Amino acid sequence: MDMDYEGPDADYLIDTTDIYEQTVYENIRVQNDEWEIIDESEAAPYLPDTTTKRKVTIGLQENRKEVPLSRFDSVLLDDYFELRKGHLLNTGGSIWGLDFVPKGPADKDDKTSSIQYLAVAGLRGTTDQEHFGLNTIQPTGTYKNAIQLWRLKLSTKQAPERARLDMCLLHDFGVICDLRWCPYGVFEDENVKRINIKTE
């Protein structure tokens, strides 16, 4: 059995060939004209408005350091721990849902195979904003929000990189209570994924 730093290689534990070759939602298609790219000033009402840097203490015992973390910034934990790997993200808001994009097994020569995407959503604010209950009805258009897509390089074989906010999907459907990517088999020619969103 092949092993690496992270443990057994999943390719050798489970045969996923038939799973990743399925197309589960073949009748759902994303159209380019359904999307619009806007500038930062137009996006502002949808994004967390905090400009305060968060102070985060990272490290163990005598090696602790206080690190300022701006909105949409990240810290690579590898820089603070000798044997630990990870990322610390400041989304600027309260997180209620997050999920990694499901990916099939990658070609061993593919240099982008270690790139993963994490969808993060919830409330735009944290403490200085009214919080919504799970049963609160929010009519469409009354609460602007965003789903943040963070790009992370997750590999023990390549040099680490800081996570970065790659894209925000803006919407006016309210607070997102949970989100999940649709299962495997929904990649299209343009590598578009679909996401299930639960709002209240």
How would you describe what is shown here?
The structure is a single chain. By secondary structure, this protein is mainly beta. It has a domain at 3-31 and 93-199. Helices cover 6% and strands 32% of the residues. The chain is built from three helices and twelve strands, in the order E-E-H-H-H-E-E-E-E-E-E-E-E-E-E. The chain is globular and about 50 Å long. Residues 185-192 have low confidence and may be disordered.
Order of helices and strands: EEHHHEEEEEEEEEE
Mean pLDDT: 77
Uncertain segments are 185-192
The counted number of beta strands is: 12
Overall outline: globular
Number of helices: 3
Helix and strand composition category: mainly beta
> Within the largest sheet, what's the order of strands?
7-8-9-10
- Beta content comes to 25-35%
As a whole number of angstroms, the C-alpha radius of gyration is: 19 Å
Instruction: State the end-to-end distance.
Output: 46 Å
Task: Please bin the fraction of helical residues.
Answer: under 10%
Major sheet: size, sense and barrel closure? 4 strands, antiparallel
Summarize the structure.
The protein has 200 residues and is mostly beta strands. It has three helices and twelve strands, in the order E-E-H-H-H-E-E-E-E-E-E-E-E-E-E.
